[in-house]
Amino acid sequence: MKLSRTLKVKVGKLSKRKQNSLDSLLSKNAEAINFCLQKAKRGKRITHELVYKDLRKLNLPATVIHGCRAKSVEIYKSYRKRKGKKSFPVVKNSKVRYDNVVVKLRKTNNVQYRYFISLLYKAGQRGKSNNRIELPLIANSKYQTDIIQQIGEDYKLGSTELVKRDNDYYVHISYNKEVDLPVPDESFSPIGVDLGINNLVVSVAPSSVLFRSGKRLVWKNEFFRKERAILQQNAAFRELYKLKDRQTRYNNHYLLNSARDIIEQAKRETNPVIILEDLTHIRDTTRVRKKQRYKHHTWIFRRQQQAIEYMALWDGIPVLYMDPYHSSQICSRCGELNKRNKHTYKCKACGFECNSDYNAGRNLQQFFRAICSGERASINYASNLVIPESKAEMDNLIGNNSIPPAPEVAGILEVIL
Prior knowledge:
Layout: E1 2-11, H1 16-41, H2 48-56, H3 62-81, E2 96-98, E3 104-107, E4 115-120, E5 132-138, H4 142-150, E6 156-165, E7 168-178, E8 189-195, E9 199-204, E10 209-213, H5 215-233, H6 237-267, E11 272-277, H7 282-285, H8 293-297, H9 301-314, E12 319-322, E13 344-346, E14 353-355, H10 356-374, E15 385-386, H11 391-399, H12 407-413
Parallel strand pairs: 8-11, 11-12, 12-15
Antiparallel strand pairs: 1-5, 1-7, 2-6, 3-4, 4-5, 6-7, 8-9, 9-10, 13-14
Helix pairs in contact: 1-3, 2-3, 5-6, 6-9
């Protein structure tokens, strides 16, 4: 399996001549994309033969022209998928996309800037090599330095994009690697991950349990909602867009930290496999009070799952999705079906009492082991579902395959309310 990531690096201080060259390149790039979009607006397919000769007049490198055509196709497809009243897209500022063949990344002994990247900024001429521009990179962390050093060795260089934000320039460097994922079986240690709103994630491993509260995330998004309402009333649309970006950055930071904690927990297990819930159509199948609707419909569980899944696959840890049917209501000790009382689960049959999200995480572990031992379904990689034949069979399967927790975990979590 091929996986890729993107490293965002800020460009160092440039001379006025280089800044003008990059500004001209960005301007021509946007002009080329708009040219392709106008062709599509007239009902024509944006093919290479249709636009290449015209775009060469802009004195752009061939690789940038190919990137403009590809970007215009993506924009037009997105425009066609949108519903309701919509205006035809016009690009004002766009990223300049480069193929990995023309990008050169090198290390120097320069005291101020150790790494430089060489990009094409205009069409080349025969016998001349003055169509390149070298940009210094600010690798201001050990993480960025390590990644740049590994590109070309452990990682393969992918596409590169040049971006301008405010008065600063950035380079988005894509890198990828091949990952061999094992096929999970009975010898694997399942980590059941239950997602919620008050408890953002509860990850139950054979030897440890991880709780990550979501209360601060809920409070922060409610703060953003109120601020957004004030800006909308005052028609401050520019500030509104900035606030939206700020909210997205905050949520991503919070979700990535939660995912990173789960991956670190999984690495401490032998042959780990992460079990996630298939929450497709969860918003349509659950009913909440009117006061809870905003919180329910803005629940970003899918982005949290994507963060966990991608980080796990990058480290070679398989991820499975399972049907969460009654995962919060089945007793993880005896298999009886009970109703949960908010955050507390208490079994009427055996008296087992614990946090309801912890109980759901244990049940996800048991779903995996029951399926492995009973050979009821095949085990697939991430984004594929493992679903038993019927809901009644799931109840019988879990009831007959109850697995107690590790002694050190059970002693801590027998009575978590």
